[in-house]
TrEMBL record, chain A:
Signal peptide: none
Pfam families: COXG
SUPFAM superfamilies: Bet v1-like
Protein name: Carbon monoxide dehydrogenase subunit G
Domain of life: Bacteria
Organism: Celeribacter indicus
UniProtKB/TrEMBL annotation, chain B:
UniProt xrefs under SMART domains: CO_deh_flav_C
Protein name: Molybdopterin dehydrogenase FAD-binding protein
Xref: InterPro entries: CO_DH_flav_C, CO_DH_flav_C_dom_sf, Diverse_Substr_Oxidored, FAD-bd_PCMH, FAD-bd_PCMH-like_sf, FAD-bd_PCMH_sub1, FAD-bd_PCMH_sub2, Mopterin_DH_FAD-bd
Keyword Flavoprotein: yes
Organism: Celeribacter indicus
Length: 155, 287
């Protein structure tokens, strides 16, 4: 399943790039992340807790940054192993930063796959959950940086 | 499976009292067909299940009401609904839906309360009951309230029901001369979970359609009522042109989510084709 989107950041590209490479800051923008550990500057582990209605999930997450082109691109592999369920969530996340005057457009593509028993719960759950997390991520980024989303233009 | 407590209260009120709105690991169980699947796959680990099997018999009975509506107790099984002649006369679309809903083993134990509260958007009955303008009546410590089925579902497994609120019955309003139809599309066996479900209920004045309610299931996070299609068909003679336009309106306005039964583009094509077919089915039905 592919999830794509754009977030407009009210900050220059270098500053946004630095923030995206700051694991602690990045993790603080994602709902439900705890126990972030930096193994080195390209490998991280964390715990992600999330819920769908009355069902709770806890994932052990491993992140490996596979490509960095400063200050335009970051690509990462993310693997989530759910506690107590046979299955795995694997994602490749590619983030491109496009300078637009004093602002930056964060253009992202996240390609995810579910295997094992997680697969039977289905992609739609993943998609609706991902959307919710995306909204929260954008909100937290905005709060931290006074960012503005491209979608939310004047009406 | 982890150990859990099983309670067997003998009244609906006692069942409600055993729920804890703060603790999502306590759930009621009706037929158990959906819950067991979630437990077997380790997705859900309850600490306590409250079986509704022994609650008052009235909640597993159904029948017409003096005001012309039809009442179905939440513990009525899908098989009971399938075989009830009064219900089949009142809303034939329900019996028609049951023939293709899973298999007889599931229908013999699954209940209408569970089918509505489960909140999986890949289900056949919720869109049908939305198209019939049905409501659920709930029971909680605060008393009872009526909720249109159209407003019951929020998203995947998510309903507006509070943690200590149960569905006790379903009320379908009088249908008068309305016609209704449900088209289910499966991509594997015919009785599989739907890849798409289209429910339509409408009044027909000659060939002219009025007050249509078109509901699509299994393509989004909840059953979707498609007002864009209703706007195309209401007040119109059901010519081939109008039917085509309605299919296009559906394909353009319904956002589809890919799942194991098909991609988003495939589901959009299913929407287009099945909305047209549902309209034709209703037009061609004997009033
Ligand atoms: C093999 C198989 C095939 C299936 N195929 C189809 C299909 O083709 N089409 C389709 O539509 N469905 C299909 N289903 C799903 C089936 O319709 C549901 O599992 C069933 O309707 C759930 O009813 P239940 O009484 O068994 O619910 P339960 O499993 O008892 O409960 C389901 C959920 O609802 C809650 N709940 C139950 N009763 C109430 C109540 N009165 N008030 C509030 N909450 C309540 C429970 O806490 C639980 O969260 C299939 C299921 C199986 C196992």
């Amino acid at each position: 399943m592919k999830l794509t989107g754009q977030i407009r950041a009210n900050a220059p590209r270098e500053r946004v790039f630095a923030a995206m490479r700051d694991a602690e800051f990045f993790a603080s923008c994602v709902q439900g992340v705890s126990d972030l550990k930096e193994i080195d500057d390209r490998n991280y582990t964390a715990v992600l807790k999330t819920k769908v209605a009355y069902i709770r999930f806890s994932f052990d997450v491993e992140v490996t940054v596979t490509r960095i082109e400063e200050p335009v691109l970051i690509e990462a592999q993310v693997t989530g192993t759910p506690a107590g369920i046979v299955g795995r969530l694997t994602s490749t996340a590619t983030t491109e930063l496009i300078a637009d005057g004093d602002e930056t457009i964060i253009d992202y593509v996240i390609d995810s796959h579910l295997t094992g028993r997680l697969g039977s719960i289905g992609q739609p759950v993943l998609k609706s959950k991902a959307r919710e997390m995306e909204r929260e991520f954008t909100k937290r980024l905005r709060e931290a940086f006074a960012l503005e989303s491209t979608g939310g233009g004047a009406q | 499976m982890n150990a859990f407590e099983l309670e067997m209260p003998d009244s609906l009120k006692a069942a409600v009292a055993l729920l804890d709105p703060e603790d999502p690991t306590i759930r009621v169980m009706s037929g158990g067909t959906a819950l067991m699947l979630m437990m077997k796959t380790d997705v859900f680990h309850p600490t306590r299940l409250i079986s509704l099997r022994r609650i008052e018999e009235t909640w597993s009975q159904m029948g017409p009401m003096p005001d012309g509506s039809f009442r179905i107790g939440a513990m009525c099984t899908l098989s009971q609904m399938e075989h009830n002649d009064a219900l089949a006369a009142f809303a034939p679309v329900i019996r028609q839906t049951m023939y293709l809903l899973s298999n007889v083993r599931v229908r013999n134990v699954a209940t209408v309360g569970g089918a509505l509260a489960h909140g999986d958007p890949h289900m056949d009955l919720p869109p049908v009951l939305v198209a019939l303008d049905a409501e659920v009546v709930t029971e909680s410590p605060e008393g009872s309230r009526r909720i249109p089925v159209a407003e019951l579902h929020l998203g995947y497994y998510e309903t507006v029901l509070r943690g200590d609120e149960l569905i006790r019955e379903v009320i379908i309003p009088p249908q008068q001369d309305r016609r209704a139809s449900y088209l289910k599309c499966t991509t594997r066996a015919v009785k599989d979970w739907p890849a798409l479900g289209v429910a339509l209920s409408a009044d027909l004045d000659g060939d002219s359609m009025r007050d249509a309610r078109l509901v699509i299931g299994s393509v989004g996070e909840r059953p979707l009522r498609v007002s864009e299609v209703e706007a195309v068909v209401n007040g119109q003679q059901m010519t081939e042109r109008v039917i085509r336009d309605a299919g296009e309106a559906a394909a353009a306005s319904v956002e589809t989510i890919p799942d194991e039964l098909g991609s988003a583009a495939y589901k959009t094509q299913l929407v287009r084709v099945h909305v047209e077919r549902a309209l034709r089915a209703v037009v061609n039905q004997n009033a």
